[in-house]
Amino acid sequence: MKVLINGDPAELELTEAKRFSQRFLGLTVFSHLPADRGLIFRRCRSIHMFFMRFPIDVVFLDRSGGVVRICESLKPWSMAFSAKADTVIELAANMARAKGFNEGCYVQIVDAAGC
Fold it and tell me: Could you tell me if residue 42 is left (phi over 0), alpha (psi between -120 and 50 degrees) or otherwise beta?
């Protein structure tokens, strides 16, 4: 999946965690996350960093795609939550702002096929 931030393409490829096992394990099975990759959780307001081995940036989106919160360099064994969120994007540490995410901006997720 590709990402548009305020209509502009971000150099970022997202994988959606759809199945229970993907949502449960998240990034715990990885030793790092490349700067141009991320994981997206739909219908999600909170994440935990239990069993993680590296920090990440977390972007919370509301139902319309607006960024309502950004947690930068969230450390392993911590948690993050946003009551307004509907979707969560996990990125490599220090990548959220570098990719153009800011609170209040609008994010659109586009299928890689462009649909």
Answer: beta
Per DSSP, what are the bridge partners of residue 108? 4
> According to the 3-state scheme, what is the secondary structure of the chain?
CEEEECCEEEEEEEEECCCHHHHHHCCCCCCCCCCCEEEEEECCCEEECCCCCCCEEEEEECCCCEEEEEEEEECCCCEEECCCCCEEEEEECCCHHHHCCCCCCEEEEECCCCC
Q: What is the pLDDT along the chain (115 residues), one digit of tens a residue?
A: 999 999 999 999 999 988 877 787 778 777 888 999 999 999 999 999 999 999 999 999 999 999 999 999 999 999 999 999 999 999 999 999 999 999 999 999 998 665 4
Q: Taking a C-beta distance cutoff of 8 angstroms, is the pair 66, 104 a contact? A: yes
Q: How many CA atoms lie within 13 A of 102 on its CB side?
A: 5
